[in-house]
Amino acid sequence: MSVDDRAVVWFDIDNTLYSASSRISHAMGERIHAYFVRLGLSHEEASELHLRYYTQYGLALRGLTRHHDIGNVTFDSQLSSYPHTLLDPLEFDRQCDGSLPLEDMITFDPNTCKLFEDLDRSKVRVWGLTNAYRPHAERVLRILNLTDLIDGLVYCDYQVKDFSCKPEPEFYKMAMKQAGISDPSKCYFVDDNRGNIDGARAQNWAKCAHFCEKGLEAMEGGRTKQISNERAAGAEGTDGVDIVTTLDELRDITRLQNSLQHLKQTQTVLQEYVDAESPEDVDPEITKALEENTTVMYAPCICDWTPVDWTSKIAVVLKKNGF
Question: Measured between alpha carbons, how far is 75 from 69 in angstroms, rounded to an integer?
């Protein structure tokens, strides 16, 4: 069996493949709060637990299954009077994600579709990576006309006891296993949640983009907040993370990365030539090209520079010198 060594571009789904302006997060948050209340909690208790579990686990249901044995019909002192039918995680999904009128809230976006179509499939595969259950994720992809442009989908399987979710390390490891990829440097990730991005970077995923519609509102853990690129207290490191406000900006990141890769390749050729020649025999044009190339490569912000393409000049000089 052949191994597919192409890189994987992972896309989150909710609030990433569509805009937060759809207010789906608000509708979802209201349904999750109502579910907590139907478990027998007061509105205050429901609000507190919803926020706590979302903050701690990245998913409210993850906290319920972990601390209240949702799915195992084991009573908890804090949840003493809830109906047994509500204990099923699939019932949670039906009452929350499953009841969302998605067809009235989001629609096909030709720009997003074109972005997916333009990804070079000879070099990358495209997978979805979501904390939602499969029916919701597939429903969103179908509405957005992206189903046939996704190679695979990793989701939270609510039927599995103690399922994992972003940003838990196990979820990213499971995702790589399902995609059949072992090298984290070949994983690229786009998500609207900075905690999920940090979780991916902690697993050494090569390049991550934080989709940040700064200024819009979204609901997280039952609380409405303005979207920003602020990080959780104690979060470490920023290397390998770009911030984009539209998915189309990913094209600019790709172009920049390709330019940088070209510069690195050029640098190698130039340096090999210089190392192979005695100082007095090095062509001045090559020396100048090496200096210019180095300046651009190691500029504090490469985005402020226009890469210099010395390819044709280098080829002529190297050929002239028999290199």
Answer: 8
